[in-house]
Amino acid sequence: MNKVYGSAAEALDGLLTDDMLIAAGGFGLCGIPELLLEAIKDSGVKNLTFASNNAGVDDFGIGILLQTKQVKKMISSYVGENAEFMRQYLSGELELEFNPQGTLAERMRAAGHGIPGFYTKTGVGTVIAEGKDVKMFNGEEYIMEEGIFADLSIVKAWKADETGNLIFRKTARNFNPPAAMCGKTCVVEVEEIVPTGSLDPDAIHLPGIYVHRIIQGEHEKRIEQRTIREA
What tens digit of pLDDT does each residue of 178-216 get? Predict the structure, then answer.
């Protein structure tokens, strides 16, 4: 089975529909699937729900889909750095489901392992717990969170072999592996595709069984807040 495609548009061909739930990897602007997000924008699909740690910035990452109003809902932990996100949310144009970062990552990971829900102390006694099932364990309250079963996963990795085994770089490893696990189909963009068998098995962060399609491309790698010392 050939998993390698020539472009982001080719890799997404036949996978995109209106109203779908997409799990997107990345942490801030680190390790975001920027090429796939651009291709989703160009496809014109709309009413999308994104499960992602954040929504990028105004003109990069998921932010480009907010500008074109192709996103109807965000399931996120952090929504700063994005003025258009703020405008749409405050005006009632965009739905928002806040999740603590660890909870969001675990909701993705749980779904990837076939677990429909789990209990956590995170959010107990806050607005996060509103409307959720509460259960006592050892005399303490826990709230139930549901796994995120996405229609599509889009992630960014550093290296892949031709079967889809992936290696991530540093902070990009925070959300990309769980995001990759929870989609019915997983499309990955990477900086380098290497021959099968050339990766050290002990260095692989995500096995290729989770990966369906791969593209290689050039990436911009922006920095959200560039802070340097004065000369």
Answer: 999 999 999 999 999 999 999 999 999 999 999 999 999
Q: Are 177 and 208 in contact (CB under 8 A)?
A: no
**Measured distance CA(222)–CA(226) in Å, rounded:** 9
Strand 213-216 and strand 21-24: the pairing is: unpaired
Q: Is the pTM of this model over 0.85?
A: yes
Reading the block at residue 100, the tokens are 């603590």
Q: Around Cβ 132, how many Cβ atoms within 10 Å?
A: 15
Count of other CB atoms within 10 angstroms of residue 46 = 14
d(CA 137, CA 114) in angstroms, rounded, equals: 23
Burial class (CB in 10 A: 0-12, 13-18, 19+), 106: buried
Q: Are residues 150 and 51 in contact, defined by beta-carbon separation less than 8 angstroms? A: yes
